[in-house]
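Q: We require from you a single protein entry containing the residue sequence and its fold in token form, and nothing else.
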Amino acid sequence: MATPSAPDTTALRSSSALRDPAFLRLWTGTTASGLATWALPFVLGLAVLDRSLTPVTLGLLLAARTAGFLAAVPIGGVVSDRCSRRAVVLWSGLAAALALPAIAVGLDWSVPLMAAAAAVAGAGQGACRPAFQALTAEVVDEQQRQQANAAMTLAVRVTTLVAPGLTALLAVLVNTSTLLVLIGALWLVAALLPPKGTATAPAESERTSFAADFVEGLREARRHPWFLAGLGALTAVIATGYSATGVLLPLISRDRYGGEAVLAAATTAYVVGALLGALIIARWRPRARGWAALAGLGCYAFAPLSLLAPVHPAVVLAAYALAGLGIELFNVPWFTAIQREVEPNKLARVSALDFLFSYGLAPLGLILIAPATEAFGPAAVLIACTAICALAPAIAALIPTSRTFSRTGKHT
């Protein structure tokens, strides 16, 4: 697909997406949804600490939310390409906003109500993700999208960095039910604030069945070999590298370093690295943007590698900072390439496949890594995770169109 040449940084500064009121509304809504998505499991964890929930109920609610997310992502992708993306954001956000007070009502007396509401909240989150991606392509001009995507991911990382402390402070002042209602208010902002897009829904006579529309999205994804290769690499890294962080880092922090300090510091270093990566990629335009992005994705291999031997804690922190930096050097060009290369009327469906296979399959890695550690030992699992995180992006880079994340294979 032929696209205009990328502007230089001077042009970007003079036509910044950050000065566009429509983008600022979209950015605020997306940030609110991201914060609400992060906050729910954190607040439910606090509920376990104050004995409002049992650990078993917590696991059930998180599983219900994940199930709702996985079910809604492909549906949201198809509906977003059939209808107004803005309408999908509105109704999915409103559903999540209503679900959070329902969880609060169910505390202490109705686990089924809480589980159903958690599933609805997950469905709202899943449906809005592809809609937000497609709406970004409608609201932001092509030349500004990398900067816009960097601004969005920067907001997510900042909230991830500061939100735990703020939420813990709020938990001292208000109870869990109030915190859940506040999360619902965030979803209300995500639902109501984003602007209208520019795309028009297809005429009723042009619509086919849901299954046919979904298959058409699969066909569109297959037209882009770089997308299939990158998605495979991303899925492999998240399922292994993220799982090593989620399962083995806490254990190693406790057993090797004598407490939770390394766990907390490594998690913070990851977020700080991601912030730096988002700042860099907001302006950096490498000619081989796909290879640069995949190299960044491969940096996640440093995270499990740093846990193999009893190294100084500073080495672990540096490894996690590199992993965070690299993941954003991948994420921003990846989202921008999807918005640029995919047919606009199929964009939400392809974005849905991205979220479904990458982040949707992450729980599978979390489920498998614990028994794998029991069977083969942590060293073998960490070596395998390191190898997969390094090799998967390298293999994806062998696909010719992966060099520039473009079917033409040219820098644009």
User: Anything to note?
Assistant: The CA atoms of residues 295 and 351 lie 22 Å apart. The chain has a mean pLDDT of 88. The two ends are 10 Å apart (CA to CA).
